[in-house]
Write a structure and sequence with these properties.
The chain is an alpha+beta fold. The protein has nine helices and six strands. The two termini are 14 Å apart.
Length: 220
């Protein structure tokens, strides 16, 4: 059965998830995660892709990425990150074979309505799975950068910037937004859109930017 084509829209944020092959661990320790983030930081500049949010779990990653004019750069970024991690682990463990699933999942996100919600969804993942009591307690997400607790290299998305004129006010408002948690309806929408490779947004956005209005449909 042929794979469903992947929709990627120019200058449109994409919620991306990539899992370990057969759900195996892709990060064995701190150094693995550090190397992955170093690669993400390096490649984002080389490929003109904005990184709005991230969350690294033991066996998968969530990323919120914004490609520029060249939508194929998104696939190149994900392939390069996966290849680097695989080579490192194979060399370290004296093994061979794949580390990641061959196909990552992605969903273009409506900026005006769901971008901030998707950011919250990603940065609250470690709380939702009961790894930590609060988003700020998890070291491997973008929340610490957003709150000014770590060196910031992520890109601040338009929805976040619209929260307030001053950064201190933005952080305070976003922190309150995160504390509210993700409503069940919103949680379902984000998960189902990602699982099906559909657009994350309201019905008008989905209708207008669906197959008929998409900028590019990629086979992988």
């Amino acid at each position: 059965m042929p794979r469903m084509a992947r929709v990627v829209l120019t200058h449109m944020p994409n919620h991306v998830v990539q899992r370990g092959h057969n759900r195996q661990a892709v990060f064995a320790g701190v150094e693995d995660r550090e190397r992955y983030l170093e690669g993400l930081r390096e490649l984002r500049s080389a490929l003109d892709i904005r990184v709005y949010a991230y969350y690294l779990m033991t066996n998968h990653v969530h990323l919120l990425l914004g490609p520029g004019e060249e939508v194929a750069a998104l696939g190149r970024l994900m392939n390069a990150l996966a290849a680097r991690a695989t080579r490192y682990r194979n060399r370290l463990e004296g093994r061979s074979g794949t580390l990641w699933e061959g196909r990552y999942k992605s969903s273009p996100v409506q900026t005006e309505t769901y971008l901030l919600a998707c950011t919250r969804y990603i940065e609250l993942n470690p709380v939702r799975v009961r790894m930590v009591p609060a988003a700020g307690d998890y070291a491997w997400s973008s929340f610490g950068q957003r709150m000014g607790e770590e060196e910031q290299w992520i890109d601040l998305d338009p929805a976040y910037l619209d929260l307030a004129h001053r950064e201190t006010d933005r952080r305070a408002r976003y922190a309150r937004f995160v504390e509210l948690g993700v409503p069940e309806q919103e949680l379902t929408l984000v998960r189902e859109a990602l699982q099906r490779g559909q657009l994350t947004g309201n019905q008008r956005f989905v209708d207008e930017r669906g197959r008929g209005g998409a900028d590019h449909w990629l086979p992988h």
